[in-house]
Amino acid sequence: MVPQEFFGIGWGELMLLLVLAVIFFGPEKLPEISRKAARVIHTVRLLANQATSQLKEELGPEYQDLTMADLNPKTFVQKHLLADMQEDLADIQKELDGVKMELTGSVTDMNSAGKDVKSLVNQSLSAPSAVATGSAAAPSLEAGAAATRLVPWDTEAT
């Protein structure tokens, strides 16, 4: 796999730097300068590896899997200090998911019960009136009967 960038420098920029190096230093000094640059890079890597191993040694055995990316404070805290809390947080998340499912089921049950009550009320309102007399008092009785049908409780029991 060919990397797209080298130290954050693209291929075009790298070629431009090489051409500038040939122009400034000349073709006879370029091999010597590249050897010196390779030694500097090797020395920097060696120092970084030694610093990492010394840090691992001083931190103790629980930090043996430490990498340079872990030295980022956010990553370090997440990986080492919050590791114990992650299991607890996962358990709490599972419990909350269970409560959410129970509440969703309860809301569904209440919605279906509300629809049942609504349909019963609509059926009782749309039923023909049992009072069918030709007297003048009949309309007021029908209105009273409709009003009592709207009340969902037993008036004699209260």
Description:
With 158 residues, this protein is an all-alpha fold. The protein folds into two domains: 1-69; 82-126. Helices cover 70% and strands 3% of the residues. The protein has helices at 11-25, 30-59, 73-81, 83-126, 138-150; strands at 5-6, 9-10. The chain has a two-stranded antiparallel ribbon with strand order 1-2. Strand 1 (5-6) and strand 2 (9-10) form a beta hairpin. It is elongated. It starts with a strand and ends in an 8-residue tail after the last helix.
Total DSSP helices: 5
Our measurement of the CA-to-CA distance between the termini, rounded to an integer number of angstroms, reads 85 Å
Radius of gyration: 41 Å
Our count of domains comes out at 2
Determine the fraction of residues in helical runs and give it as a percent range. Answer: over 70%
The order of strands across the largest sheet is 1-2
Q: Write down how many β-strands occur, each being a DSSP E stretch of 2 or more residues.
A: 2
Order of SSEs: EEHHHHH
Mean pLDDT: 77
Q: How much of the residues is beta strand, in percent?
A: under 5%
Low-confidence runs of at least 5 consecutive residues: 130-141
What shape does the CA trace take?
A: elongated
For the sheet with most strands, the description reads: 2 strands, antiparallel
- Structural class by secondary-structure content: mainly alpha
